[in-house]
Amino acid sequence: MEKYKKYMQKAAVTAALLLPALLVVLPVVLLLSGSLMDTWELEGYLSSVFTESGGYISWKLIPDYPSFANYGKLLFETPQFFVLFWNSVKLVVCILAGQLLVAVPAAWGFAVYQMRGSRMLFALYVVLMLLPFQVTMLSNYLVLNRLSLLNTHRAIILPAVFSTFPVFLSYGGFRSIPPQLLEAARIDGAGELTTFVKLGLPLGKSGLLSAMVLGFLEYWNQMEQPMAFLEDKALWPLSLYLPEITWGQAGFSFCASVITLIPAVFVFILGQDYLEQGIIYSGLKE
Amino acid sequence: MKKKKRFFGFFVFPGFTGILIFVLLPFGDVVRRSFTTAVTGQWSGIRNYETIFQNDAFRLAVGNTIRFTLVCIPLLVLTGFGAALMIHTLKNRRWVKSLYLLPLAMPTATIVLVWKMVFYRQGFLNLLLTRLGEQTGLWGMVGTDYLKSEAAFWVLVGSYIWKNMGYTVILWLTGLMGIPAELLEAARMDGAGRAKSLWYIVLPNLRGSLYTILILSFLNSFKIYREAYLTAGAYPDKSIYLLQHLFNNWFVNLELDKMAAAAVCTGGVLMIAIMALQKLWET
């Protein structure tokens, strides 16, 4: 009887967990299957949706006539897509590199050289991290305008480089290094910079890696800033281009969605441990 | 001591300079502007503040934003907790955690396509509901256009939960695993049932997790604008016209004086809320 109860319990838990799993997997499957259909098939399924005629959407998870035609068209006959893809890559890489240079040393400073005032400053960093973009939108605009950076990629990169979120995450990683270790290194005559490079970076790398993983996902998906500060569509990242595709070109938009999704999922799979670690670090309190 | 100060400066100063230039100084400028007129820059006292508080769009947006936050954050916290309790009993948690986290990695723009297929008038949801109605004979055809009616609010709540469930579950799980097993064992020995040990031992030990979850889910609640904007545009149904829409529309129309006043108000309220939350948790 006891065994039976346990078994039932397990079945219930599995069922309850399966539903959300379905909700996560289905959208991906939908995108994948749509991207492999040719234009005619897709139009047949979707026509009722965008012509507002009677009837409902229909779908097949395995297309009747699977084809890579839309991928081909998108990748080889749409140079615009490439431009935007590289825009996205450039923005993300520049932002993350800048954050490594600026935020990681700052996090080290906060973690290792604690003193009067440093705590207050750190609290300010936390508040800045939590302010939504809309609150700082106008101030961002004013400064970018003053420095005449509007409508350039630097308008997106520079403010993001000085974001305080990576400072906060890397700080979590550096705090997990036992202070005695650093003290020992100093007694052995290591300079402060050497301690940072030789001890801090390797031992606290989980924090900064999680900042990079979370940062990648965030900036790959970035929309508000480019929408506000980039007028020239040739400068846009992919995340803004996708919604511009109309229903008439549904085939394109499925393929473009899948291609946009790939780097994010790739980074997600590679960095899942760091992602989790980062989420946990964001919970460490002083 | 002096050396310490020098190195603190060495490491922190470059980043701080950037923050000063890109955030703090310009925000000071915004505060100044909130007391002046947009075009001529003349001192206008609190007129801008009066204008926005009498502005219907501002009131609507503030109301909706507060409503959205008050609905979705408790919902997220609770569903996340329920899921974490269940996942905690599993042996192999890794793939479950991956599944829950995956939506966090999916760019909004890619998922909006799916949302449209589901929530349009002739989309999957209505198809499903209509079939269900036919089967059971309880209702007829369902023809709600979820993105263009008040249902849009719940679509947003749903996609918020869908997207943010992952880290909530992870944080709850971390909290749950941090509770010493001896403590629960001792409670069981003393005859505490499952509900009792949940209430007296598990929950009090999770205060820290709750704090982080609240902060993060609040931070992310503003990002729902992406879904809202992409599914419904700059002027969506009244029920999901959020502060973010308003700021964006003011920005497009160059109504910078109103924006300045609203930014100062929103920023101020948020800052007070964050600090109050921090204080609340320290005591």
Task: Kindly describe this structure.
- The complex is a heterodimer of chains A (286) and B (283).
- With 286 residues, chain A is mostly helical.
- Helices cover 75% and strands 0% of the residues of chain A.
- Chain A has helices spanning 2-35, 39-51, 69-77, 79-112, 118-130, 133-146, 154-161, 165-175, 179-187, 192-203, 205-220, 224-229, 238-241, 250-270, 272-281.
- In chain A, helix 4 (79-112) packs across helix 8 and helix 4 (79-112) runs antiparallel to helix 11.
- Chain B is mostly helical and 283 residues long.
- Chain B has a single domain (44-282), classed as MetI-like (MetI-like fold, Orthogonal Bundle), CATH 1.10.3720.
- Chain B contains 13 helices and no strands.
- In chain B, helix 3 crosses helix 12 (243-252).
- The longest helix of chain B has 33 residues, at 56-88.
- The radius of gyration of chain B is 24 Å and the shape is flat.
- Chain B starts with a helix and ends with a helix.
- The model of chain B has no long low-confidence stretch (mean pLDDT 86).
- The chains are: A mainly alpha (286), B mainly alpha (283).
- Chains A and B meet through helix 1, helix 2, helix 4, helix 5 and helix 6 of A and helix 1, helix 3, helix 4, helix 5 and helix 6 of B.
Label this structure with key terms.
heterodimer; A: 286 residues; mainly alpha; MetI-like fold; globular; B: 283 residues
Q: Which helices and strands, and how do they pair?
A:
The complex is a heterodimer of chains A (286) and B (283).
Chain A: H1 2-35, H2 39-51, H3 69-77, H4 79-112, H5 118-130, H6 133-146, H7 154-161, H8 165-175, H9 179-187, H10 192-203, H11 205-220, H12 224-229, H13 238-241, H14 250-270, H15 272-281
Helix pairs in contact in A: 1-14, 3-14, 4-7, 4-8, 4-11, 8-11, 11-15
Chain B: H1 2-33, H2 47-54, H3 56-88, H4 94-105, H5 108-119, H6 124-136, H7 151-177, H8 181-189, H9 194-205, H10 207-221, H11 225-232, H12 243-252, H13 256-282
